[in-house]
Amino acid sequence: MLAAGVIVCIVRWQAWFGMPDEPVWRGNTLGYVFPTFAGDSVHGFVATDQGWQDTVTPQSLDLLVLGDVHNRLTYAEYDTLAARVPQADAVVQVGDWMDRGQKYYHQLLLREWTESSLCGLPVINCPGNHEYTKGIHKTLLPEWLEWFPQPVEDIAVPGIFYHVDFPQLRFIVIDSNSIDLLVYRTRVLTWLRDLLNTAEGRYVVVMMHHPAISACKGRFNPTIYATFRYALGQIDLSIAGHDHSYMRKGHFVVVNAAGKAKPQKDSTNFEFAYPDPVYSVITLPDYTSAESPFIFRTYRMSDGVLIDSLYVDHH
After folding, report:
1. What average pLDDT does the chain have?
2. What end-to-end distance do the CA atoms of the chain give, in Å?
3. Nearest 10 degrees: CA dihedral of 256, 262, 265, 270?
4. Is 246 within 8 Å of 278 (Cβ atoms)?
């Protein structure tokens, strides 16, 4: 009887706090690292005192934005995206690129990505909750850290925090999984305000996995909202994921590339809401003009039809 009780407790502990057994990977581990802005150089970009200089299309910038993927896009679908956005300079991924798991799901992502036409583009990546272990002590999976090396910015907070400067755009990444403690939120907010104050006229985009606002029932994140709502009100675009729907309210956007759709229960206050998977493109058509428009376009993933456009002025 005692033994049966111990077994039940172990099973429930595993279900509640641990990771399920993952499938055994039968393929090649690939030994591949995604190109990111942590290295000395990235194809088409040069690190300068003023930030990362785009040398491929110096008069423009195009960023392909993908929300939650959860291992649901194949190399053929990535090829389709590459054909639809042939001018893309980099890929932005807002977290939950893989499903919950460890090495198997990273290797599955690597197999599909490295066989696609997008694999040579640098990645600006943000970890989602599925890139963390599930349990009492959440930690970022070591495979993510190995395969997605990112610039290191020391703000005395565990997690992934960094920014990439383009000539007319500052892109800031915040790991929203790592700000449970008040001291961490304070440090991140101070770091963010410093980046906003030193942007030197660039457009500013902030990306984090958990949204500050949501149209999905039960998905409100009070900690994110209370911490960042005033700072995010000063930027040009806020990108989040997690809610498996496309939603836009002003310059707050939630994107979803392939995650299983979650029902939208409170979309009346949003300017645009769409339940099916999408991809987006950030465009700055002309670096040389201080008045160049900042454009955020969103397309239906299934057929590439444009469903929403946002023309942004400086805040």
Report:
1. 81
2. 66
3. 0
4. yes
The answer to whether 302 touches 73, Cβ cutoff 8 Å, is no
- Residue whose pair of structure tokens reads 């029932």 in the numeric block: 217
Name the token pair of 183.
């001291």
What tokens were used for 306?
Answer: 């444009």
CB 304 within 8 A of CB 84: yes
What three-state secondary structure class fits 2?
Answer: helix
3-state SS, residue 277:
coil
100 burial level (CB within 10 Å; 0-12, 13-18, 19+): middle
Tokens of 132: 């963390």
Q: Flag the least confident range among 128-132, 212-216, 290-294.
A: 290-294
Check whether 267 has a pLDDT greater than 50.
yes
Beta bridge partners of 132: 140
Q: Two tokens at 207?
A: 């990306």
> Please, which residues bridge with residue 205 across strands?
171, 237
Q: Residue 235, exposed/middle/buried by CB under 10 A (0-12, 13-18, 19+)? A: buried
Asked if 259 contacts 244 with a C-beta cutoff of 8 angstroms, the reply is: yes
How would residue 152 be classed by pLDDT, with cut points 50, 70 and 90? confident
Q: CB–CB of 89/62 below 8 Å?
A: yes
In sequence order, which residues have a C-beta less than 8 Å from that of residue 130 and are 6 or more positions away? 70, 95, 96, 98, 99, 100
β partners of residue 296: 282, 310
- How does DSSP assign 46-106, residue by residue? EEETTEEEE-SSTT-EEEEEE-B-TT---HHHHHHHHHHSTT--EEEE-S--S-S-SHHHH
Provide mean pLDDT across the span 169-191: 91
Residue 247 Cα distances to 18, 158, 259, 284, angstroms: 32, 29, 14, 22
The rounded distance, in Å, linking the Cα atoms of 213 and 229 is 9
pLDDT of residue 1: 55
